[in-house]
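Sorry to interrupt, but I need a hand with the structure work. Could you write out one complete protein record for me, on any chain you like? Just paste the record in under my message, thanks.

. . .
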Amino acid sequence: MDIEALSIRISWIGFFLTLVINSTVLHTAFHHSNNIFGSYKYLIMSFSLMGIIFATAEIFSKPMIFDVDSAFIILTFLKPARSWKSFILLAMFASMFAVTIHLLTIQFVYRYWAIFKIQNVKKYFGKLKCVFLWFTTCAFVFLCMSLMLYIARPDTVSDEFLQNRTKSNLSLNPELMTYYIAMIYLEGSFNYIESFPLLVVIIMVAAHYIIISYCGFQMFKNMNKKMISLSNHLQRINKQLFRTLIIQVCLPTLFIFTPMLSIYIIPFFNLDLFINAGPIACSLSFYPSIDGLICLYFIVDYRNALKADILYFLNCLTCRTKSAEPKSPKPPNEKY
């Protein structure tokens, strides 16, 4: 089995896992979040829904990511090539990286305000405000990424570069694929226009991680002092949600976000190299399902609710099986 076929199978496995696990998170968060969670449950549901959208965009676009010399390239072989549908789907996949980090940051800000500035939670994260905030922020990030990717759309110069530079590695025909390319250096000079998308992504990710680090450090340092007046149940819930957020950030940062960010940064060094980021793209397909598992496992209320739902389903299945079994006829009364 070649690498391309293996990556497609891995992507489909990741897609189905994401669909099942994140749908379970949506069901559990909607039906089993008590009043203590407040509007935070809508953020959990939004993050799970974004994971499903991310996996869907990934499985249909089947993106390939490369670093070639001073160029960052993301491409797909969707048919028809270079149609507006192919460009939009590929832009959607590329936008998910920024949207994911953005939603994680919103969750950290919510938890920080819930502990230290509860009035801000009531002001900015009411039920309707929370949903509105999610849609507007995600739409804004998607719009920014789409505008940046429009700058990186292919032209005759990029077609010639791609065909000549990848001839020995992949033998790609640029006319038969949809791709975005950011050529950081053009004819030996720094290309300010095409470097703009990558610079914005790097700055955006750095800014979000600064906010996450600040909120996380403040909660780790001062959370116990602030929660002394709360009930034991509230303290337990807050600690669970904080622990969940930390793991949701640390795992993908180590295994997904850091490698992905390095792919964005390497072209600025103008090295003579060819990097196929296929393994990173495969890991991206599993990220949403892993995130859903973290949520289901570390939030005890959700874990217990899921166990109860599974037991209820098994009991119903057992009862139906028993009722469907044919009953043995009673022996006729014998007269002696």
Summary: The chain is about 70% helix and 5% strand. The chain has a mean pLDDT of 82. The two ends are 76 Å apart (CA to CA).
